[in-house]
From TrEMBL:
Name of this chain's protein: 3-isopropylmalate dehydratase
Keyword Lyase carried by entry: yes
UniProt-listed Gene3D superfamilies: Aconitase, domain 4
Protein's organism: Cupriavidus pauculus
InterPro entries: Aconitase/3IPM_dehydase_swvl, LeuD
Keyword annotations: Lyase
A molecular-function term among this protein's GO annotations: lyase activity
Keyword Transferase among record annotations: no
């Protein structure tokens, strides 16, 4: 397994409450078409609510969102976020959305009530997803958030569910032969 970078440093991209997956994170037609190609999805990330987002973000940037982020058990937006090298910190997200994001290998810190009060769009952030340290370098402040649990870090470090299962299969063998 390659070394996963748990500390992301980049600009804050702040979103409010109730950002849906379909029609918010990515256009709905990518969800209904079940698109999974990162190269197809990346240019369309947040395009319906923040035009040109994919051209302004850089690897290491952090999406900071409010309550109920990514409603729905969809994955195309998380595929695009991971492919762009982004991280996600939000006040809350439905369990299906959380599971989908982790399953695609996206580093996520949730739930974090009040996170929107700690930063503004464009602030320079440093977030350690392994320890939960959230540093707003623009404001000169730092906060301790709940870190990702070790078992979920292992899942994300292996690229999500498919990578984790591939590793398990290679090391544990065929469960039918046990």
């Amino acid at each position: 397994m390659s070394k996963f970078e748990w500390v992301l440093r980049g600009r804050c991209h702040k979103f409010g409450d109730d950002v849906p997956h379909a029609g918010g994170i990515v256009p709905a037609h990518f969800v209904t078409a079940r698109e999974t190609d990162p190269e197809v999805l990346k240019p369309h990330l947040f395009e319906e609510i923040r035009s040109g987002f994919s051209t302004r973000c850089r690897p290491g940037d952090i999406v900071v969102a409010g309550k109920r982020f990514g409603m729905g058990p969809k994955v195309p937006g998380y595929i695009a976020m991971r492919a762009l090298g982004l991280g996600l910190v939000c006040e809350s997200m439905p369990v299906q959305a959380y599971r989908a994001a982790l399953g695609e290998g996206l580093p996520v810190l949730a739930p974090n009530p009040g996170i929107l009060d700690l930063c503004e769009d464009g602030d320079l952030l440093e977030v350690d997803f392994a320890t939960g340290l959230f540093v707003n370098q623009t404001r000169g402040t730092s906060f301790g958030l709940a870190p990702m649990p070790a078992i979920l870090r292992d899942l994300v470090a292996r690229g999500g569910t498919a990578g984790w299962l591939s590793h398990w299969w290679q090391h544990e063998g065929d469960p039918a032969s046990a």
